[in-house]
Amino acid sequence: MAERRLRLGVAGLGRAASSMLPSLAAHPHVDIVAAADQLPLARARFEADFGGRTWESAEALAGDPGIDAIYVATPHQCHVSDVVAAAAHGKHVLVEKPMALSVEECAAMTDAARASGIALVVGHTHAFDPVVRTMRDVIASGELGALRMIVNVAYTDFLYRPRRPEELDSARGGGIMYNQVPHQIEIVRALDGGPLRSVRAASGVWDRNRPTEGAMTALLEFASGVAASLTYSGYDHFDSDELAFWIAESGADKSPAHGAARRALGARSAGDEARMKAESAFAGRGVRLAETPAHQPHFGMLIASCERGDLRPSADGVLVYGDDGVREIPLPRGRTFPNKDGVIDELYDAVVRGIAPLHDAAWGTATVAAALALVQSARERREIMLEGADVR
Amino acid sequence: MAERRLRLGVAGLGRAASSMLPSLAAHPHVDIVAAADQLPLARARFEADFGGRTWESAEALAGDPGIDAIYVATPHQCHVSDVVAAAAHGKHVLVEKPMALSVEECAAMTDAARASGIALVVGHTHAFDPVVRTMRDVIASGELGALRMIVNVAYTDFLYRPRRPEELDSARGGGIMYNQVPHQIEIVRALDGGPLRSVRAASGVWDRNRPTEGAMTALLEFASGVAASLTYSGYDHFDSDELAFWIAESGADKSPAHGAARRALGARSAGDEARMKAESAFAGRGVRLAETPAHQPHFGMLIASCERGDLRPSADGVLVYGDDGVREIPLPRGRTFPNKDGVIDELYDAVVRGIAPLHDAAWGTATVAAALALVQSARERREIMLEGADVR
Fold it and tell me: Coiled-coil region(s) at which residues (chains A, B) (predicted)?
């Protein structure tokens, strides 16, 4: 018997959508049938590439009777209204991280989803990466004893990728705290599996021309006692992919190019930079559906320590450093590039099979709460307690 | 005119002395003329190798009229009495880290040194490494703007090196908190240059057979606002020298050997293990004075981020990742192996040239205070404020 197909609309055809469309297009049970974007060029590109209907707004897309679910990839500040609109029309939702910019917005989205009975899945983050899932499985197996400590260190060129003005404004969800640190928060949450107890963070705005947080270091402690050390710098100096076998976040092969993003960006007006971003994203280039990655996607250098062994992603799997030496768990290459199958599987399983998603509204809310606590901790230079913030 | 020579006695001929003797012996203005140890085998070895006088106790050595200074390398818990005895006899002191096991002991040592007018130098730690000093110089030059963030990550086999029983007892200064974390504390203190404001740590005792702290992660914030993330595991699983060009802490070339220390130790009685330690240290093997290291000594993976660039030790110098790419500052090889010249130079300069040491009693006390605050933070699962703890 044929599996039921999921008819999907894409709200927002920007960089997030560019990155998700290969996995959506390759999914065996998903049909991409509609999209919304305010840019005519993006809509024309979608019609040419996917042959579906287009709308000028996410709200209009929500009213499309020919879709079952909406992938909300609009700017962060639009997530709450776009998800509430989708729910009002009975459409299931996959919403990009961060779920929203406040716990109150998350609550509004959660309430709307609950009231209309739709599935609400939050992601993709690198917590969905096969290497992280495999590490989680090894931890859960008990082979290495209890998980005790996690380190994740990422140095990237994030701050010098082309941006729209709001992406450089922390108050509107710009900078690393809402866009990169959530990957780290979700990776360690996925590995521990329980609620956070407290966080202590320090962050920095080091480039006056890009006045949003570009670097951070934090110590997170879970209720379980597991401690996680997270460090991020997006200032395009050192590149932590050197510590991860010189493969890129996506799993692609990579050559050292320190400072290349800064040089490519150069000095240009905000308008020029926004155009540069649009041209390098879906509206300008569409998506390349045929690529496959050379290696596993990952996020920075990651080490999870259990009582009797350490776990670390390798280029093509997971390294297990046990009492008696090291072995590698090889992993199959993803179908697509980037590989974001995990989050789409969760949406499909929730809608069609009635399987509750792991990365549901409560999960996404807890990540937003943690990110906001890190922001608060850095601002107030003190530890912030989080007990009770995970509503799970 | 010939420089004045410093006549030195060595109190305690254990592993610390084994590691320091090459640098002491190679120093152009230091003569090793006496030593103290309770083990007859160690005294005999010293007499054979160095031809000097030997004593059964550090107190007896302190009374030797033929020495100007004492290198105190006795077990941690003996530091306070051995330094006070040296001061009472007007002998200058170089005392191993940790300076002592409490701030009160440090105060007693400081008072004794002040009362008798002797020089008191604390070290060696990896803060004296040429790579760290070079990073500090680049930071001080202002070339990269202000220092903002430091990460140090070390995964070693520390816990499975042969130990005496007290080295596995935290109450007597055993475990990583008093022996390895001080390296990390001093590296980041040397780079920032100012007092610490607060610390938050989590530590773990993961092997019941070696019931002392073997792993830790911490966030330290300096009064300057600089944040430092320190992580250490001595459980012989992952080896962070993989992230540091596969060179050992000493600068020697290294081959991966995950779990080798645990296998070599095996299951044996405490007495057998103490004997194994003695045999592998000075009493059993003496010191090899001719070796020179292939590369620079270092401690784990270290990245210091300034506003306009990151600094990182390379195998043979320091990498500067600036706005326009990466360059390397090459450093000369050390005269000796391990290379601990820096701390001996400080002692010599303090005694002979009247130059106040950087790593003086106040410096050593602040490191002990920081290590104790990390212990307290981990125990109480909360941030500990340190303002005022640096008496400088």
Answer: none
